[in-house]
């Protein structure tokens, strides 16, 4: 490769620019400062476009380091802004660059390119243009996923990308089944247990198996019910074996997939009966109360939290509802299907998830949020409380907390003296 160029990464300052596309009017209320100076949106939009064009050009640079930096900068931009119109004009160029980087690049570059492919499809949403992107990238992703000589990290990134892009794009049922089969062939290798007392042994392939299983589970949520029934019959008796894996992420992925399968099974048949229910609930309860000293405290805490919810789902058909806030809106996650979908896109979009929930038509459609809520700058300003009011509220809250804590301390002191 050639000499690496100095690539100025996409920064938070760029991300804060209210620009691009039909959704450019959206913003978080916090982005409007009180009595702040007016921003020339047209000029900042041109600056951002200029930077992004430069990054796209650099994805073809001779230096691998430069290409990777450019891919990462594009990922930051795509996750933090809605850039539909900009991308629409350059989708084929971007697709060609991503394909080239996945085919020719090394592990880190392939991972960055696969991540950018996910975000490209998230930006474009479902439609003919996205289908064209997937037709080009789908075979390349499958090839890397199934290539035993490729790095595990690249295969892992491509498995995740394959699942997400297929979820977004495909209306072709045969393509959906083909993609699921590809992912199935990967994670089913984890079922092949070593015949020793420790159950499933942890190998360097486990991260790949986890990503393939999670991507497959995402696609299962959009399958027709007759196919869902087939997959449940095929996997529900095998998945519990993965609960004995040494790897925490595999145990959690298997547990959450089991909860989702039970949820889908009971949707198709309210009288669904699982033969080995006692054995399964015993395993789940053990994981929900695990106190093994050889495991890290953080891992045990995370495992117990997840498996308490999984046990409730399997045993009591219950789901702990979660609320997600974004801008002036609220979304309730009230089932495992919705949780799996939300967690997948949150992993890809990172801190940009709230912004995309507010502004991205595709994601709003997935979570049944309706069309984006149009809010202008004046409305957002009226929604924001003044600095003085916020100060008064914080002072009152602080005093209330201090009084409550003082009472608790007094009670503890009394008890101490009593004993």
Please tell me about this protein's structure.
With 419 residues, the chain is mainly alpha-helical. The chain has 3 domains: 140 residues, Leucine-rich Repeat Variant (Alpha Horseshoe), CATH 1.25.10; 97 residues; 70 residues, no CATH class. The protein has 18 helices and 2 strands. The protein has a two-stranded antiparallel ribbon with strand order 1-2. A hairpin with a 2-residue loop joins strand 1 and strand 2. It is globular. The N and C termini lie far apart (76 Å). The C terminus is likely disordered. Pfam families: IFRD, IFRD_C. Keywords: Developmental protein, Differentiation. Belongs to the IFRD family.
Q: Can you tell me the number of structural domains?
A: 3
Mean pLDDT: 83
Strand order of the largest sheet: 1-2
CATH class of the largest domain: Mainly Alpha
Portion of residues in helices?
Answer: 55-70%
Q: Give the SSE string.
A: HHHHHHHHHHHHHEEHHHHH
